Amino acid sequence: MQGFFDTKIEFLKGVGPQKAALLNKELNIFTYGDLIQYYPFRHEDRTKFYDIKEVNGSMPYIQVKGKVRHYELKGPPRKQRLIVYINDGTGELELVWFKGAQWMLKKIQPGVEYVVFGKPTVFGSKLNLAHPEIEVATQANTAGGYLQPVYSSTDLLRRKYLDSKAISKLIKTLLDSALPKLRETMPAVLLEQYALLDKQNAIANIHFPKNLALLNNAQFRLKFEELFYVQIRLLKLKLTRIDKFRGISFDNADLLNEFYTNHLPFDLTNAQKRVIKEIYKDMRSGKQMNRLLQGDVGSGKTIVAFICLLIAIGSDTQGAIMAPTEILATQHYTGLKEFADKMGLRIALLTGSTKKSERKIIHEYLKSGELHILVGTHALLEEVVQFKKLGLAIVDEQHRFGVAQRSKLWQKNTDVYPHVLVMTATPIPRTLAMTLYGDLDISVIDELPAGRKPIKTVHRYDSNRLKVNSFLKEQIDLGRQVYVVYPLIEESEKLDLKDLMDGYESIARAFPEIPLSIVHGKMKPDAKEWEMQRFVKGETKIMVATTVIEVGVNVPNASVMVIENAERFGLAQLHQLRGRVGRGADQSYCILISGFKLSKEARTRIETMVRTNNGFEIADTDLQLRGPGDLMGTQQSGVLDLLIADLGKDGKILQSARQAAQAVLNDDPNLSEPKNSVIKTQIASMKKTAVNWSRIS
């Protein structure tokens, strides 16, 4: 039946070539299949008619029927508003039109009964409905109530008479012929186990539900199915990888034990120990490891990475760490060199600014196997970088690398694939991790090292600036350093630079004797580096910057982070910036400064930051506020083109769907049994867009 759903949309009655072109361009609807899966984003409750006397200003949307008693036009000719009074015998209600008064006037007739739908508001002491939907009462629209679907449209579509109502009409036309042709896409066993509606009923009731219960059941069924197939594909990739790709088996722990016994500078947290055990188990298994290591800023991922590198080097292979920026790569290198020197291991740094003469030596030592660890940026991916035998590739802040870039690390060995450890300090909510990295094993470092004090976060308005400045002065007198960060919004860099320079000047006026650094994206890399270094060495006490300091700067003495215009930052970014302080033993502070006018979302973001330091809680809130698309640079994943499920809200459904997918594959890994033929057919017919994360992370 697939052919029917591949029919071009222009052949549907009421569409034609011109409307089809608009639907293609504006909504990505090309075929019958696309239209039938264009789901409404909400339903208006038309199941009930209210008596006018029951209506109050706190109701969302209401439907009433009543006769027009009279109407009046008020205001000057160019700003006329139309007020229509309707009565149903229990009371009177005002309907108001501020636009198109003359046009509406032609449609309204006194003494005629109308069905009216809209949102009640209180104006003064009176109730009214502004710009309600209104139509003459007929037997059809007053008989039995129904839930009316509301579809997303665009300004252009609305101008061409393709608003929500028109889209709804097209879908109704299509459903008549389409429903009998829909095949079931879930196996009978799962339909029964999870009490899922069958496909035909689910599609009929997602668009035009008979009642609220059926609408909820239809939504559950379609969300479950969508997430089930995302998980089936990811878990199948994982099985394929485990079967296909041999890994190097590492079972020599001598270096690891020596480091542990003689050189470990501090006790590991229980979370670090647990994660190292999980990774070591993978690396000994003979199967190629693909593991995601999540740990909040400052949770001690670097030492875990070094210990894992020791496992690889102990078995005569090499290790690599790839970071997205030169600053971060340099920081990894500096941090690891101290440990490597103690262990007598050779480590090198390779970035875009490594001198040609140094590069030559690095390439030679790498090829001969004399170089044990190579730390670097994208420069590691170049053809000339050849390892003798790469045992472990570590990718830091992996969402900043494109898919194609990461896959090149895989090609560094000819005979066997290196183990891969992906690290991120951006906490990923469980639901997103299960979808985005569903075929990677996940380890989490969920406690901070001993002696680290939680950062105190406060919110202050612009008007408290003098108090904030005197607090900063106290901190600097105690020998601490301060970051002051200004937002950078790409569309208006000129404006932001002005913000930054104005801010710099006002700080210079407020702290005339204190040396300042300034860093922003428009500076040349060496100038930026020079300013950063002055701050790191403690020559300057206040660093005024844009968000370029978001990732990787480690200054233990910096204990205060001031974020100006905090309302203009996303939650993830606020959390990353806060993580720049709290690196030392002193109590650290984060001060969020904003104007008085805050949107509801901005208020939620700021309240969340003040309430908690837990990165995962913050990531969950962020996911609910923003949705998954822009959270992680996930557009490149191809996994998140979800039609109906919402990872911010459907975490429970996702977990059930993953369990179901896991159970099916445990029982029948190749989906060869007749009971799973439905799944096999569906996977084959789905768009081939799912990116194979396992092979590229």
How would you portray this structure in words?
GO terms for molecular function: 3'-5' DNA helicase activity; ATP binding; DNA binding; hydrolase activity. Keywords: ATP-binding, DNA damage, DNA recombination, DNA repair, DNA-binding, Helicase, Hydrolase, Isomerase, Nucleotide-binding. One of its GO terms (biological process) is DNA recombination. The structure is a single chain. Helix content is 41%, strand content 18%. With 697 residues, the chain is an alpha/beta fold. A 7-stranded mixed beta sheet has the order 6-7-4-3-2-5-8. The protein has a 7-stranded parallel beta sheet with strand order 12-13-11-14-15-10-16, with helices on both faces. The protein has a 6-stranded parallel beta sheet with strand order 17-22-21-18-20-19, sandwiched between helices. Helix 10 (212-244) packs across helix 24, helix 11 crosses helix 13 (301-314) and helix 22 (600-611) runs antiparallel to helix 23 (615-626). The chain is globular and about 95 Å long. Mean pLDDT is 85; it is low at 629-639 and 688-697.
Provide the CATH topology of the domain at 254-445.
Answer: Rossmann fold
Measured on Cα atoms, how large is the radius of gyration? 31 Å
- Shape, per Cα inertia axes: globular
| CATH superfamily annotation of the domain at 254-445 | P-loop containing nucleotide triphosphate hydrolases
